[in-house]
Amino acid sequence: MNSTDLVIIGAGAAGMSAAIFASRQGLKTVVVSTDLGGQTNLAHVMENYPGIQEESGVRLMLIMATQVKKNGAEIVLQSVQNIARSGENWQVTTNHDVFSSKAVILAFGKTPSGLEIDNEKDFIGRGLCYSSQEEEGWWLDQNVAVVGSGNSAAEAIINHATKAKKIYWVVRGNQLKCNAINRRLIDLLPNNLNLLFNHRIMAINGKETIEGITVIAGDNKKTKLRVSGILSATGYRWQSEWLPENLIRDQSDRIVVDNDQRTNLPGLFAAGDVTDTNYQQTIIAAGDGAKAGLTAARYLGCRLANLDWGKDK
Ligand SMILES: Cc1cc2nc3c(=O)[nH]c(=O)nc-3n(C[C@H](O)[C@H](O)[C@H](O)COP(=O)(O)OP(=O)(O)OC[C@H]3O[C@@H](n4cnc5c(N)ncnc54)[C@H](O)[C@@H]3O)c2cc1C
Hints:
- The radius of gyration is 22 Å and the shape is elongated.
- Helices cover 21% and strands 28% of the residues.
- With 313 residues, it is an alpha/beta fold.
- It has two domains: 2-110 and 238-311, FAD/NAD(P)-binding domain; 120-232, FAD/NAD(P)-binding domain (3-Layer(bba) Sandwich), CATH 3.50.50.
- The chain starts with a strand and ends in a 9-residue tail after the last helix.
């Protein structure tokens, strides 16, 4: 078993920022993550991160990873499967290793909800994507389907409608959930948009690439549509089934934290999109990550000095 002061789960903006701040406070820090960079990698151009100008998300995250390593933290590309309290410490189990850590920061972001159909996985990156920035090219002169009724779906359609041949907008309910501005912009679009209320995709047709979809309506009527791309903008899931049962989460399964990024459990902190923060942006994740790193250091300082952590607020 590997012993350390701090394990950070997730190498997105929150986790990497936490690692920079914690290791500068002298904590032996290990970042365990399934990938390097997280969702920010999907941002084609970052125009709202102070201090950088029109840098790609991937490049920004590579710079952060360099800073993490320069400050002495280690990054391990593994997937965490369980965390459990073990005496005063936390035991973090990954698909390869077990870490014993005095403190843990949860920074594992969120996951797209997806279409929830059987062959979905086969088409990821082959015409099926979860953000409009991922596959900008496939809109050009093509028939595409956009799934979801919120602002992400609406904004993708507004930005790309003039490029596409035809857009099928597949909406489960009987109304749009996007804001009033987006609704007005949608009304101004060219007439290549087919809005399918009370429909859902039941199958993707094709072998190597997407050739079409089968949609089913509320009255069970099935229709085959020829499309070569699908944007699934159906929201996100917060995957927390592997977390301790007594960790407090909100109705969406997001981890509830206080102003210093503390959860309700001792030595367990959280930052970024995985928490119940109001705003889910890279700069917010980085800022909250910095706070989590500093709070973890303060927690360990109190523990070392035998001070009551609860009173040190
Ligand atoms: C397409 C797109 C464009 C965006 N554009 C912008 C933008 O222009 N500007 C902006 O400010 N924000 C943008 N955002 C939002 C921004 O990317 C997020 O708010 C930010 O990435 C949140 O950072 P995070 O560190 O909390 O989580 P994430 O970036 O989601 O990172 C979580 C990390 O945890 C890892 N992980 C997950 N589960 C496990 C596990 N079990 N074990 C180990 N590791 C795990 C993941 O692999 C990932 O590396 C965009 C998001 C998307 C999807």
